[in-house]
Write a structure and sequence with these properties.
six-stranded mixed beta sheet; five-stranded parallel beta sheet; 41% helix; homodimer; Rossmann fold
Chain lengths: 523, 523
Amino acid sequence: MGIQFKNLDQSKSGKKLLKGAKSANLKSLLTEDRIRDYQIAGPAGWRFSYAARPVDPQAVQLLVDLAAEQDLAAKYRELLNGAVMNTGEDRLVLHHLTRGQVDGPVRKDGKDLGAFYRSQLEKIRTFTEQVHQGTIKGSTEKAFTSVVQIGIGGSDLGPRAMFLALENSVSGKKYLDAHFISNVDPDDATAVVASQKLETTLFILVSKSGTTQETLANENFVREKLQKAGLNPDRHMVAVTSETSPLAKSSRYLASFFIDDYIGGRYSSTSAVGATILALALGWEVVERFLKGAHEADVAALEPDPRKNAALMDALLGVWERNALGYPSTAVLPYSQALSRFPAHLQQLDMESNGKQVNRFGQPLKYATGPVIFGEPGTNGQHSFYQHLHQGTDTVPLQFIGFLESQAGSDVVSEGSTSQTKLKANLAAQIVAFAKGQTHENANKMFPGNRPSSLLWNTKLTPEALGALLAHFENKVMFQGFLWNINSFDQEGVQLGKILTKSVLDGSASDPALRAFAKILSV
Amino acid sequence: MGIQFKNLDQSKSGKKLLKGAKSANLKSLLTEDRIRDYQIAGPAGWRFSYAARPVDPQAVQLLVDLAAEQDLAAKYRELLNGAVMNTGEDRLVLHHLTRGQVDGPVRKDGKDLGAFYRSQLEKIRTFTEQVHQGTIKGSTEKAFTSVVQIGIGGSDLGPRAMFLALENSVSGKKYLDAHFISNVDPDDATAVVASQKLETTLFILVSKSGTTQETLANENFVREKLQKAGLNPDRHMVAVTSETSPLAKSSRYLASFFIDDYIGGRYSSTSAVGATILALALGWEVVERFLKGAHEADVAALEPDPRKNAALMDALLGVWERNALGYPSTAVLPYSQALSRFPAHLQQLDMESNGKQVNRFGQPLKYATGPVIFGEPGTNGQHSFYQHLHQGTDTVPLQFIGFLESQAGSDVVSEGSTSQTKLKANLAAQIVAFAKGQTHENANKMFPGNRPSSLLWNTKLTPEALGALLAHFENKVMFQGFLWNINSFDQEGVQLGKILTKSVLDGSASDPALRAFAKILSV
């Protein structure tokens, strides 16, 4: 008896859920008892509170039933063990394997893929150590002092968010300064290149296919600047690509590190795509700790009972909010400046994975799938768009993230409390303000309340904690894909734009509207 | 006969609009003729195309009628001339006056407020010149080399977005390096302070009330670090505040520059709040050009016919999308890396202004108001959340922004075209891909089309162009506030969180849920 892939509206609990519901009344529900009970101990020190999510006990039971009926844990295990989960592209989905193996080896065409990913990480480790020791140097025999990643989408947002999250997490020395070039806008590369001492800069070119238009253009931009500076570009560049790409094993790179088609771009932060820059900038130990945390979260996500599995429960609650309550967007609000670009990464992870309108068999769906995801760090967001979240006409579910301690430990006492304490007091206050609202005789000062949120919290944003946080959201997105019965691992929706762009550039555009807009923009 | 403030559902055209509509069929509508006709020449070289917005000619006529019926141009003129438009707080709304006067002087309690704002800008100009000349120096008598703004919300997002937009726009010399501290998370201040040579750093403390918790905590953090470095903090700090604030005219600052209650935080980029750091970092001339562009846009927005007024038409189209078509969010997509944080500023500007559920008289509304706003620069977004925009189950209206030329002019030819040309080809392609979609036998490769967008474009992102772009959106938001009959200039929705935070910090929190969450976070 194999696992069945069914649409949400083909399962009994799914049908119930799709009939719609009223949001649970958090004003009365949000008690101390519920806050104690609606908590899940997660991996790497994380805890997850869903006390302020819009579910009463009956709704929670429905979600528990739905998880069982849709075989979510079993589907996840199949994915881990090499099932062809990316159906449209006939591919395995193996990003979990970059951080650890759960069951036996996963083989494809006789190749042990876990061993392959590990061998690439090992190559990165050795290369990194040689750069740090000054054995590998630039073309003028000077040691490298900074590293610039050239990549876009998954080759940029995840690695950049992870780097920013960790650059101040390690008290030991930081190795190389790190920067990123992503946009094909030449002003992006111009600004980054101008800020670097090229003689001691190492560039990481990241493109799985080796054909990404923006990335190749930026590579050429950088090579030209290196050449003009009298440097040999081949001695200032490594590639992260697939073994079959035009970039592989080229003498134009100091070294090449490989991934393959089973690591989707938006899931590649724990592969060579993220590991190379993290290792060069922050040291190999940070990468190992980061991967360890992600693996812990992957193991924790195997638990079939959502009441004991934060990623699974988070996924189910999201589907409840999207399909039973009809909320079209979700905000991610980390109370941590180090996570400033984490929402932008989740925006890609979630919207590119689950912004789909057909199921995994290519059949149109009759229900809503992935929401719009946006967010900025608190307390900044409080002084920006929270007005809308509190008193706007729509309800936006919120995902709060918080830490007991700051990363650097440097702080000041002002008006009787430290900044870290203020940060946490704000976070606690917001959860309750959103949930409970406030009555007032002046309608302008009235807060409707019943605006749902969850809280993920940990002691400190360490590399392990970041790895587990990343995996939490990757696994949440995966479970939601299973629930909606969609393929979360392809991105056909990016193809049409690429084709039309090419037609504009090679002069073959036939649509008069396309020609008119190209003319407007003097293309 | 005075101007009447009516709810959208109290006007004849508004009632029609609220009955709902089907999206116009862009697949057939988007012709060369329409692209030529649905264009508005705007201020400072801007052009606005609404050919791909979801309106047929009947809908456009309805919007033209609505603008007339709701007296939008007249309401704007009243605002310019000092009407109490911020009704809840009984205040004038005068940010336009920081960049120029349209009619006669605006006086309040006998004071000419335009003259007041100009006098502050003049003080900033003089101060800036003295810093640049080295007449005003730090406490060790060394010239300043960098400037750090301490502020949050409107004191951060706007100025930061404007600085990033302009830092590479001027070919002449850049004066001081600029940085920002906003979050109360101590890791924010720690990282920025660690990156600066304090001896030659000037801090700008920005808080209109002088009581912003996060900003005062960060001021104390910085003062402590300055002191520990053996420097006199009072010689390294200026204040931007109101004349009545505790910070005004204090000897603790090298200088103080004033705004007042008639400049809302999110509208303050063209006041002392934005001008100080722009002048110090980029020179006074840049500020003047920036203000000039904004003023041009303010004047252009006086035109009563929406077919000749880009800001007004943009506002009406947004209301059409929100209330006739029911779209809950809008994405802002600048094809310009320099505008990387412009969407974050618009997120505050729009969501804090129009995320309201009561009208300007404090009465509950029965229709949706401001949407969720999010965005990232293209081409980056294409490799991130565009999958969802193309093939997700919801429709998200898009606001594209583009430029014919890059800022720096440095470029490379790769595969036969420059990066700037590729950037523009992508932009043209996306507009058409979203509008027209693609049929395909494989549903997974099918693009539904009819996903609306508009395009604002200009030759180059100069200071004038940026000022006009900023004012375009400020005025769009204002017109939408008039249409929804809300007060776009208060933010009562941020108060409850502040009160509850205070209660946690002073131990007076009474709600058991609040105490429980505070305990969870070890506050």
